[in-house]
Design brief:
13 helices, Lipocalin, eight-stranded antiparallel barrel, eight-stranded antiparallel β-sheet, alpha+beta, 28% helix, 20 strands, globular
């Protein structure tokens, strides 16, 4: 998720310190240093609540909550507070497939269409060659976040509809040639689990991972949480003010990002990962061979030079549900997750038997990165540096770059002349092959744009330049205003719509650039 730019003072309330068993490893960073880093990160990045956990040498040695579950309310975050973990769900989906590989029911390089004949990509060759491994490695040829608008913001699309519509998404690179992060193919992976195991992905994860590891009250989706007495509320900065928002149901793409869990129970998952598939009480979840599979690079990922310099990273890639890199000479296995109003961070250093968790109830990724990296530095013997200050500088640079572009766009819109056609000429019904219908309505002398199957994507159109307008979504928490370009045929009539995000800071799941609406009336 993009970094939030708002600011309010947040009271930091430490709570939920876990008991540490006798004989537990000594912590490699002073608890007071963690407390101070979290406090500063919460203030710097406007985060109401955070939970932090550390596992080391087979034990949970630190678990603590900070701040509040919901701004303006007294309930404190503790080590048992449930958070939406977003794309950290992907490792569970990869593990579910690994379990089926262990059982001989599938193989990583089996063709997807052998199990799911309904699976189709845009190119017939890609469809024929697409393997189970390809579902997990972000090398399909689809663009970043392609098709995410079928589930985000919350829609009524079913998994079956999304799988059908994959065939209409055009590739932006050749098959297996380039890393572009996607969500939809992880959903397909979850549906493949369901096909092979003859049960839902949700049930499989619950019965084959959560239950053996005794990860109660974690749940495969928000809807399946049994006890909601200790759940973090998501927050966004809207019009400069930190605001609690409702949880969006993203269950259509569940295997890519809908698990809810807490530090106490996620620690069991990290311990299982660090012990090559065997849980803390000896429960065998998947084999050491499958652990090696998941922790091996399949797709190379371009380095971010400034960050790579800070972490002394030379190689970065994606395995199966995990990002793999070197950091100060150690292997690091990690992932992040983000849904509206919540972001999470997981990192492991296998040769140190170390795992770090940071869960937050605000969508600023800078806070979790600062806290997590400060803890890793202590264990890796990295040079002394202040990750909160580093993150603040990155945030400032990114915000200034985005604000400059947004400001230039606003200046053009402010002096825009009326569009070349009467407003009534733009009104009508339009359809995109994979996203469905959109409408442009003339109401009280103004145009209103709405994309179907969601209540979130509706807003007025403001003239910008010629046949280009800007849609300002009524939900200002989306931070995703877009250019709406109308095309004309040779007869002069409006015959289509394309879109593009106004700001470079727009979350990549708003894949407006993949839409191509044709007029249908």
């Amino acid at each position: 998720m993009k970094t939030s730019m708002g600011w309010v003072a947040v009271a930091v309330i430490g709570s939920g310190w876990c008991g540490i068993a006798a004989g537990a490893p000594s912590i490699g960073i002073k608890p007071s240093k963690i407390d101070a880093t979290v406090t500063r990160a919460m203030q710097a990045f406007n985060v109401p609540g955070i939970a932090v956990g550390i596992v080391k040498d087979g034990k949970l040695i630190f678990a603590k909550g900070y701040g509040v579950r919901e701004l303006g309310k007294a309930q404190a975050v503790d080590a048992d507070t449930l958070f939406q973990i977003g794309s950290n769900t992907k490792a569970f989906t990869a593990a579910a497939l690994a379990i089926l590989v262990d059982e001989g029911k599938i193989h990583w390089d089996d063709k997807v269409i052998d199990y799911m004949p309904e699976f189709r990509m845009y190119d017939a060759y890609v469809t024929r060659e697409f393997t189970i491994r390809d579902l997990l490695t972000h090398r399909s040829g689809l663009g970043l976040g392609a098709g995410d608008l079928m589930f985000f913001p919350e829609t009524d699309f079913s998994r079956e509809e999304i799988i059908h519509n994959l065939r209409y998404l055009k590739p932006v690179s050749s098959f297996r040639s380039k890393f572009d992060y996607d969500n939809l193919l992880y959903m397909v992976a979850g549906q493949l689990v369901a096909k092979v195991a003859a049960t839902s992905w949700e049930s499989f994860v619950q019965q084959r991972i959560f239950d053996p590891l005794q990860m109660k009250p974690c749940a495969p989706s928000y809807e399946l949480i049994g006890d909601r007495s200790d759940v973090a509320t998501p927050h966004q900065v809207i019009d400069g003010k930190l605001t609690a928002i409702e949880v969006q149901s993203l269950k259509a793409v569940g295997p890519a990002g809908t698990i809810n869990c807490n530090v106490t129970q996620m620690s069991k998952w990290l311990l299982t990962q660090l012990n090559a598939g065997t849980g803390p009480d000896g429960q065998k979840i998947f084999s050491a061979a499958r652990s090696e599979d998941m922790w091996s690079i399949n797709t190379m990922v371009p380095l971010n030079p400034p960050l790579a310099q800070l972490t002394h990273t030379n190689i970065l890639g994606y395995g199966l549900g995990w990002e793999i890199q070197d950091q100060f000479g150690h292997k690091r296995v990690s992932h992040t997750g983000g849904v509206p109003g919540t972001v999470t961070w997981v990192s492991m250093i296998p040769d140190l038997k170390l795992g770090v968790l940071v869960l937050t109830n605000q969508e600023s990724g800078y806070a979790m990165e600062a806290i997590g990296n400060q803890i890793l530095d202590a264990y890796l013997g990295a040079p002394a540096r202040d990750w909160v200050a580093l993150a603040a500088e990155f945030s400032k640079q990114r915000s200034e770059a985005a604000e400059k572009i947004e400001s230039e766009s606003a200046k053009i819109a402010a002096v825009a002349i009326p569009p070349p056609l009467p407003l009534a000429a733009y009104a009508g019904h339009y359809a995109d092959p994979w996203r469905g219908e959109a409408t442009v309505e003339l109401r009280d002398g103004k145009l209103l744009f709405k994309i179907s199957r969601t209540r979130w994507l509706e807003g007025p159109l403001t003239p910008y330049s010629a046949n280009i307008f800007i849609v300002k979504w009524r939900n200002r928490g989306l931070h995703a205003d877009a250019y709406v370009r109308f095309s004309q045929g040779y007869d002069g009539h409006v015959n289509g719509i394309t879109l593009q995000a106004v700001s470079p800071a727009t979350d990549f799941s708003f894949d407006f650039q993949d839409l191509d609406f044709a007029r249908i009336d």
